[in-house]
Amino acid sequence: MLQAIGLTTSAPRRGPRAAVDDLTFEARPGHVTALLGAPGSGKTAALRLMLELDPGRGVTYFRGRPLHRIPHPAREVGVLLGDVPGHPARTARGQLRMLCAAAGVPAARADELLELVGLAGLGDQRIGALSLGMDRRLALASALLGDPHTLVLDDPTEGLAPREGSWLHGLLQARAARGGTVLYSTADPKEAARAADRVVTIDGGRLVADQDGGDFSRTRLRPRVAVRTPHAARLAAVVSREARAARRSVEVVTEAGGRLAVYGSTCAEVGDMAFRHGLPVHQLADEIGDTGPTVPGNPTGSEAPRSPTDPACPTDPDPTDSGPAEPAGRDSGAGAGGPRPVTRASAPESALPIRRRPARGPLQPLRYELRRLFGVRTTTLIMVAVLGVSVGLSVLLARNAHAPLPKVLAAWPSLLPLPPAAVGAGLLGALSFGDEFRYPALAVGRGTVPRRLGLLLAKLVVSAGVAVVLALAVVLVSAETLRLVYGHDWIHVPPNSVSLTVSWVALTVGCAWAGLLAAGVFRVTTAGVAAVLAVPVLVVPLVQLVLTGPGVRPVAGLPAGLRELMWPRWPHETDRWIALAVGVVAHPVGAALALSLSVLVCAYLLTGLHGRARWRSQRAAGPSQVS
């Protein structure tokens, strides 16, 4: 069961009133509940409060527990808010498999859901090429990944064709028949009456009515005759005059565009009146009209006839839209067929603060990161482009007989601040966080990626692995190309090949991490690329002034000094590796990378800890501090 108690949005003290004000209702298991309201009535704001996406007051229980106390929310609550926040180049199957890793469910669940929502034949279709109906099906599949007990959907049929809407409501009814709880918002009262077992009506952020589907249809929807004529005022006067003469209860409402809505009559009667008085009629049809939210104190749910000039009279230009109405108060009447009374929440529960909770990271971060990285063709295209440019530069550099072999194999001419492999590794690292902020997939409606240690470590490991593969591939492919072009005896293994390999791999990995951390701090891919390019352009010259200045002493005695301080004693071979590591760091580029990475790690940790500390302080704040 879903229970929302005292939901109230935070509003500025001198600003407009809250979008949701002391809203309390419940959605029962085994039933489809519709949250009905006109656009701007507070439906979406109420759902976001329930999901702890916006700050406010109140509490929402999902089978007796608030959302932040549920260990695995995706397995308890499925959410559909807007479209799927996925990369447009990712396939539908790839998107679901990535989300399976985030939710901690088997990857085979993706194919099951594609079959369930009717996308089995479109699994390899790109998200950007899906139609609105197919995109909504994919969003519903994302909500069902963890097989949740509760579904919370925000206007799921908006913009869909009637056939697509009927299919979606059939799926929701099937979920409810299995004992699940389904809550969805809508602005169409006829859709709510047709598809929901219970209808909760809100207006101005307040509860207006809470009714069964049958009672809602009887008290809210009324048959009417829709008439369009160029002489709407004359026809309205004729229908009203003849209704009074016949002592019949007929209500005529004038709408925009020469339209009339006639309640209490039939098409035949209205057509005969127009014919007798010589009035042309361009449209004449039976419709089901919305009378607006039920007025408290009127237990029958029907409204007395109103004058067309009455400002409270509904004047909907579209018969499918619910007309605007004044807020009807917190409690409604409880007469036969009317809305049932709603018990006001107790003060302690309704005063509980709702804070925007930090999004949770993926349950399987390494598998999630691998699927995220290789789920689009961008990674492969960048690696292929780097290999092609590197091989071309190597062939050109090898024409100069005096060019050093390491520079030739790394494709690093003196004119470039960084070799193509380092730039490509930095770009891939920047995209690993930048794309995630641009196309958020870990949390619905939050718009940001969680700063979780597990996710960060997974990104560092995967980006480092890709950088190592790219660095080694560039050297091997360049070497084989040079053998083919200039002969087999041209290339020889240098005596310091180990130190050169370590330096080359450290350079590419460092650039990948610099791009990743900068994109994570500033939440944009461009910042990651700028951080990578800033290392040779800005940081290296500054480091060279320190490392190569006059009077600088070497650190050759560091391995021996460490041997004397450490216990137990390590083998003499370890001194060689320590000296190698010191030499890599002592190089101006290596020192610049180490300095940049240290600064970026500190910035990432500070921003993450600051956000977490602010959330903890807000969580500990009392209800009196909630605006």
What does this structure look like?
This protein has 627 residues and is an alpha/beta fold. It is 47% helix and 13% strand. The chain contains 20 helices and 14 strands. The chain has helices at 43-50, 92-103, 108-116, 132-143, 162-177, 189-195, 213-220, 232-245, 267-276, 347-350, 365-374, 378-398, 405-410, 420-438, 453-486, 497-522, 525-547, 558-565, 573-586, 588-620, and strands at 2-9, 23-27, 32-36, 56-62, 77-80, 150-154, 181-186, 198-203, 206-212, 221-228, 251-255, 259-263, 283-290, 353-354. The chain has a six-stranded mixed β-sheet with strand order 5-6-7-3-8-9, with helices on both faces. Helix 2 (92-103) packs across helix 3, helix 14 crosses helix 17 (525-547) and helix 17 (525-547) crosses helix 20 (588-620). It is elongated. The two termini are 29 Å apart. Residues 295-347 and 613-627 have low confidence and may be disordered.
Features:
627 residues, alpha/beta, 6-stranded mixed sheet, 20 helices, 14 strands, elongated, disordered C terminus
